[in-house]
Amino acid sequence: MKTGIPEVDRTIAAVAAAAAERHGAAAVARIAASTLSTFESPVWENERQRPTWVHTPGLTARPFWTREQCGRLTEMITAFEAGREAIAAEIQQLDTSRMGVPYDHLSVEPEKIRGWKNLFFFKDYQPDVELLARVPTIKAITDRFGPAQLDRFELFLSVLDPGTHIPPHFGGSNAKLTLHLPLAVPEGDTAIRVDTETRGWAGGDMLIFDDTFDHEAWNRTGQPRAVLLLKAYHPELTVEEVGVLEMYAPLSAKVYRELLKAKGRGQ
After folding, report:
1. Domains along the chain with CATH numbers
2. Model's pTM, two decimal places?
3. What is the mean pLDDT of residues 19-42?
4. Alpha-carbon distance 1 to 11, whole Å?
5. Closest-CA residue to 178 (of 51, 20, 43, 10)
6. Phi then psi for 191, rounded to 5 degrees?
7. How far apart are CA 213 and CA 50, in angstroms?
8. Which pLDDT belongs to residue 100?
9. Domain Aspartyl/asparaginy/proline hydroxylase: where (predicted)?
10. Category of 195 on φ-ψ map: left (φ > 0), alpha (ψ -120 to 50) or beta
């Protein structure tokens, strides 16, 4: 796991040594064997799954996941589903004028996703304390679950304006799953395709998928589609491996943002 940037690679080695001390060498082994897709030549275990940021070996790959397949994540998923109506009501009271900037994405050009608008409760592992105070149900759930069940790299309200199409692309890391809690889903043609399967957002159930498969989403209705988007570490990672990834998280976020800025993105 190397970038070819001396300063960054020295930090990667230092974090690995510290992680081994804290979590044990076995917990570091699989993470250290990961490939940084942006900097190294990846060898895909599954040609249909191509993480753009980091590929961690030995993890089950499937486009869509069920709650029952998510192991220790299930309690967290159930908590968000149970709080869905309260979350939707709290979000309706927010000032959404801050949602004008599209999601910063390494593999999708900003001009192609102007209708994908977002309001972040967590970004780069940092909470928006003021905003979370206004959505107590989300705050209570995020306070309840630790990193082994809920990743805090990003958690946000994700809205697709009418007529918006997020083009096909691959997500960043197969060590994480993406989860959508449906909040406002208009009738009509609004859906997401992951690999070869297309699904909508049914009822109050969490939609769980691996965004490192080719995927796209669209809203061809006359009303906005809104979901709460969150991330969770792959359930086959051990708690100790999650601990190692959390130690790398600040460095990963820093390098990721620098790459975005080099591309003229990442405000």
Report:
1. 6-60+237-262 (no CATH), 64-233 (2.60.120.330)
2. 0.92
3. 90
4. 11
5. 51
6. -160, 175
7. 6
8. 60
9. 85-235
10. left
DSSP symbol at 71: G
C-alpha 105/C-alpha 222 separation (Å) is 25
- Is residue 220 within 8 Å of 163, Cβ to Cβ? yes
Q: Identity (one letter) of the amino acid at 194?
A: V
Strand ranges, E, within 101-242: 116-123, 126-127, 151-160, 165-169, 176-184, 190-194, 197-199, 207-209, 215-219, 225-233
More confident site: 254 or 51: 51
pLDDT in tens, 67-85: 999 999 999 999 999 999 9
Whole-number Å distance between alpha carbons of 48 and 131: 38
If one counts every other C-beta atom within 10 angstroms of the C-beta of residue 167, the result is 13
**Cβ–Cβ < 8 Å for 125, 250:** yes
- Tell me the per-residue pLDDT of 155-182, one tens digit each, with 9 for 90 and over: 999 999 999 999 999 998 999 999 999 9
Between CA 1 and CA 164 the distance in angstroms is 36
Tokens representing residue 266 in the block: 């990442």
Longest Cα pair distance anywhere in the chain, in angstroms?
Answer: 55
117-131 burial by CB neighbour count: b if 16+ within 10 A, else e?
bbbbbbbeeebbeeb
Q: Are 232 and 177 in contact (CB under 8 A)?
A: yes
